[in-house]
């Protein structure tokens, strides 16, 4: 198979060898094409003139059934089967017995391998296994792309076909580049075994090691007795001890496969079946089995898990099922052009980090990990939610033009930089930026922003290999203030916990981490952590104004305790002769619904407030923003959330305290339209959204907007969302959205 011959010659030799070894009078290879049909690519026994001429639909004949169902079919009298389809040009009418197996790779069907005999014979299990083993080798030949040169335009093998996939736009932008799999597939280079007993022993040892590693994780004191993480590990342990799974891999070895080949073969077959299931629970288990099989392959090959984050192409597009914000920050951000996920949600912390880094991102792209290979050309459209895999030249050219058009739009936004953000009827709106990394700081001058409305201090902790010392924190905070100049900066104290895990701190597993021990709760329980950060912030702001907010505050008493820590640190610095901030303003992040019923007491104590709409809306609707099944079930532009947000704005005005909305709602022009309609005059948004939101506000008649929207909120409307009404107003007013 490794001879330096043409792809057609190689296929012709393969079918001859298979026919001889299986004592079959016919062996044929059918390849799935980009148009969804199956083409006869090689045959021994049928009429050779039918090669590349015989084409059938995937819903036609026995070959089509094998491809469609991704399951072997063995028949002693094929012509009696209702799916049998006679093709006169092949001369197959004299053959009665039929054995067809799918050519699978990562669970995806690439073609069908068939053997036939004139006699009415029943093929043995060993023969079926042997043919499946050969199909694995053929899958790699087809996936390599070497058959493409043999095909007519529009009839290329589907394995390397261009794909147009749709998902959920997470972060705006367009990225053109090459695939980098976050969890790279282990490439099995040796499929055929030399020593079957040795391969069985290797497989058994790897399974034992895998089971032991899962047991160790479950026995770790850091793993909670109950909760989602433990449930996942328990599922892994159940699969790792499943006799059926282990038995199928052992049987595959006995057919002549290496241990690695057996794992890959069983997992590809299992994945093919699960991809065709409609039950969401069973499809989720496919991910568990994928992960377990990859762990087993790493045991067998001795390869570490995860990508080589230090060796990225210049234009990397990260492809993953899902990943944590910390994992994304492990990559060289200067080389990342995009992110594609099988999961993901618009308000997840990973999405927030992607937006902060200016990375185009698309989520909910089904089976993307199984459809691409590392190095594949790929385009990510974070505006429309489309992903182009192995795009044809005309599509790539169109996207290059789209990138140029976006660049022109950015130039137009840049021309608005020095204009005051004032609506057409004269209302001033302050636009600030959300930030969290040093790479964000140049955006302040580029956009002409009023300041930084939210600096997420936890991002520095998430990208560090060890807990940042006070001096390291001091240096960062001073750099932020220097970059802002005389413009205000609001620092949020550490918001860790939930899905924001520090790699050097032991994770506390909780059943509901978003509602658990995180943010200010962790800070008040571990005051040393909070004190060291506040001390660094106070020192960095010496002679300047410091604005500080505490996240996840649920009760006025929590704010009082946190403010007391600030006052103690001020006293400590004063006593030891350190320069102090010219002024320290202390506020809270309003994101827990309980505070809606404590606003009067709260506004009497705080200097200012920031609204975290991401968590506030999540908690209002009890809908996990990171769960794709419910994240989009409730619209943040529904009356319930808008009334809650308006209540905050009204109370802030009544108490004479400034309030800024710094959640992701402010980063979308339509949502920003709703926010100014209900009274917000300070918005903090992602750098990429600054231009579009400002362009919309400059064209807005705010009085007319308020007159259209306020009555809907005050009338007790039963509308589930005000989105259509806002869109209609924007269209009638000619607002750019």
From TrEMBL:
Keyword Chaperone: no
Reactions the enzyme catalyzes: L-histidyl-[protein] + phosphoenolpyruvate = N(pros)-phospho-L-histidyl-[protein] + pyruvate
Subcellular compartments: Cytoplasm
Cross-referenced Gene3D superfamilies: 3.30.450.40, Phosphoenolpyruvate-binding domains (3.20.20.60), Phosphohistidine domain (3.50.30.10), PtsI, HPr-binding domain (1.10.274.10)
A Pfam family that the UniProt record links to this protein: PEP-utilizers
Required cofactor(s): Mg(2+)
Annotated organism of origin: Ancylobacter amanitiformis
GO terms assigned for molecular function: phosphoenolpyruvate-protein phosphotransferase activity
Domain GAF: 6-152
Protein family membership: Belongs to the PEP-utilizing enzyme family.
InterPro entries: GAF (IPR003018), GAF-like_dom_sf (IPR029016), PEP-util_enz_mobile_dom (IPR008279), PEP-utilizing_PTS_enzyme (IPR050499), PEP_util_C (IPR000121), Phosphohistidine_dom_sf (IPR036637), PTS_EI-like (IPR006318), PTS_EIN (IPR008731)
The protein, known as: phosphoenolpyruvate--protein phosphotransferase
Keyword presence, Kinase: yes
Keywords: Cytoplasm, Kinase, Magnesium, Metal-binding, Phosphotransferase system, Sugar transport, Transferase, Transport
Top-level enzyme category: transferase
EC number: 2.7.3.9
Broad class of the protein's primary localization: cytoplasm
